Amino acid sequence: MHEQIYEMYVSLTRMEMKRKVLVIGSGVAGMSTAIRMQNSGCDVEIFEANAYPGGKLSEIRLGDFRFDAGPSLFTMPQFVDELFALCGKNPRDYYSYKQKDVVCAYFFDDGTTFTAYANPKKYAETAEQTFDVSSKTVLNYFANAKKKYDLTAPLFLEKSLHKVSTYLSLNTLKAVAQIGALGVFSTLNEHNQKYFKDIRLQQLFNRYATYNGSSPFLTPGIMSMIPHLEQHFGTFAPKGGMISITNALHHLAVEIGVKFHFNKKVEKIVIEHSAARGVMIDGKLHRGDMVISNMDIVPTYRKLLKEQIAPEKTLKQERSSSALIFYWGINRTFPELDLHNILFSGDYLKEFHQIFQEHQIPEDPTVYINIGSKDEPSDAPENSENWFVMINVPGNKNQDWDKLIPIARKSIVARINKALQTNIEEYIVEESILDPRTIESKTQSYQGSLYGAASNNKFAAFIRHPNFSNSLQDLYFCGGSVHPGGGIPLALLSGKITSD
Fold it and tell me: pTM of the predicted model, to two decimals?
């Protein structure tokens, strides 16, 4: 009886005043959700443990060099622009970007180089000149990727997979009717082997598994839709670097009334009568009508909901890969490199086996180099470049990182020297390192994983944690560790699904 009276009181109170929404974390998904909720008439406050917004999407400075610290690939900017449009703002008044003519420069172990152009026809023609493949085959691959995206995006990316209403739609029936063509019953590697005889092309298209921190030899073939995002929607360079996205969202959120509290680490989500009613910070209760966690789902339960029953099966899913990143100030320029560059390992299968089965840094890792100063010259001194050098590594499972990192650095240097015919260590004048331990401590990403759970099985999309609690009212979740997944576009869509 008392509980019924309490709930009636809460309902009447909500009708008379704005609902107060508390958001834990100011990552891209957290700010996206906050903007949408504030714009819908709620009173939103964000509590951030760090002194700055953005989560992984931040920056660092070393001497005269500036680096984007986290995500370096910007695709599907329409999802960012949409937030400004919802608030009646012109996104170009807050940030701007330009489309890249070149998606990525590739360097293979046998010395082959390949420039992946944004224009699909030019990409296919260049591939025909470089590899044992016809341009028609490449274009057919892109067409197949588009078909998969068009069939599944309304289901997998734009709605909750954990609501019955999602499955009672024409889009769902279309996807189910063509499930055999979606590639869910084969791996990405198997799918790519069917299209391409040339092992270099297989390796190139296998790398898209790393976009969600998975292995191409385990993740389903449906992931072949990812190249469509680059070739159809394009890749972009934000003016001022990736940090400009964070700054723009923060500016918009503050402008429409979202309140930010920095250096405020949430200790507990307060549950009353099976509903989220606030957060505890420094022993003080901050009350609200709704709590949304942008924190990784594992520490959300382990640290903030200790007294609640946790979804153990979901929390124990295999985690995505992490990263070992070197921020290097280089005192020369490399014209053969672009904004995005991939230097492939000689044995891709072994590389992913060592990451996911042995939980060790690969002996011969594929190296990704992002050079922001290619588009933002002020990011580095004259005749210099800011190198963001990354390899995929396993999550933090108490490996001896202090011993492993110097060994990995030597492998990275060897791969760069081989691909570019140089001695890169002669030109490194600044250096900082980010490893799985520091990723975990700075962003609360469990084990330092970049994308939450890995997608190394065909049911991965369905077993990610939902954007809401099944057992607790007014408790919601957003970000890369819950549906629909990690990366800037999916994090933004996560905010949309959660706010809806």
Answer: 0.91
